[in-house]
């Protein structure tokens, strides 16, 4: 590519980002504020605002919006060319609790939403057993696109996607993170210890308490492990309640 092609490539990237953003906002039935407002584009919360999500003039604005916008129609790794839908994450942008899974599966890839298949239904039950609703928490994954055949994420894919997860967590600033399964725990904690060793006690991710536990898909195959997951989520509830 010659130097003269660079502005064109940049423009194409911007067009792709905007197209994906319009599609996602359309799905979420969000007003297309950046198309109707003049100069300012997406309205951002005031500097120093404590609440990540605010309602202004009927337009919901989230500190996650710029992360989604930058991700755009992502082609940073080959999975971008294979997906049906990018699965950004969903839930409360001001959540106290964030669940991080591995990667979208077939159902998630079809719907563009995290944890909506069988494992997702089990996660929804776990959240309900904690006295919460999916809308109270935030749910996302290490990877935003489905690996073919649900194979394990590759190091390059994780490296391409991780900056966006980091920015999501920085924007949400949760009080607790729950890492679901080995991939989430290993990626966030930079540890290779088995999940059976990591689970059950809090570690820290960027200063935030992080509880690794078994992935709901593992629980579907090994229902006996539900008892341990219940212990792990009870520890999370205690921390959220008491701050200890
Ligand atoms: N498994 C995951 O790790 N994430 C999903 O979104 C669905 C299944």
Task: Report on this structure.
The protein has 244 residues and is α/β, with parallel strands linked by helices. 43% of the residues lie in helices and 14% in strands. It contains ten helices and eight strands. The chain has helices at residues 6-27, 33-36, 65-71, 106-111, 118-129, 155-172, 181-189, 195-198, 216-221, 226-242, and strands spanning 53-56, 59-62, 90-91, 97-101, 138-141, 176-180, 203-205, 208-213. It has a six-stranded mixed sheet, sandwiched between helices. The protein has a two-stranded antiparallel sheet with strand order 1-2. A hairpin with a 2-residue loop joins strand 1 and strand 2. The longest helix has 22 residues, at 6-27. The radius of gyration is 18 Å and the shape is globular. Residues 28-51 have low confidence and may be disordered. Bound molecules: uracil (URA). The site of uracil (URA) has 13 residues, from helix 5.
What is this structure's SSE topology?
Elements: H1 6-27, H2 33-36, E1 53-56, E2 59-62, H3 65-71, E3 90-91, E4 97-101, H4 106-111, H5 118-129, E5 138-141, H6 155-172, E6 176-180, H7 181-189, H8 195-198, E7 203-205, E8 208-213, H9 216-221, H10 226-242
Parallel strand pairs: 4-5, 4-6, 6-8
Antiparallel strand pairs: 1-2, 3-5, 7-8
Uracil binds at residues 101-105, 108, 114-115, 117, 119-120, 141, 217.
Beta-strand residue percentage: 5-15%
Unreliable stretches, pLDDT < 50, 5 or more residues?
28-51
Major sheet: 6 strands, mixed
> Could you say which overall geometry the principal axes of the C-alpha atoms support?
globular
Q: With helices defined by DSSP (H or I, 4 residues minimum), what is the helix count?
A: 10
Number of DSSP E strands: 8
Bound molecules: uracil
Order of helices and strands: HHEEHEEHHEHEHHEEHH
Average pLDDT value? Answer: 85
**What would you call the structural class?**
alpha/beta
- Spatially, the strands of the biggest sheet line up as 3-5-4-6-8-7
Q: What is the end-to-end distance?
A: 55 Å
Helix content: 40-55%
Please tell me how large the radius of gyration is. Answer: 18 Å
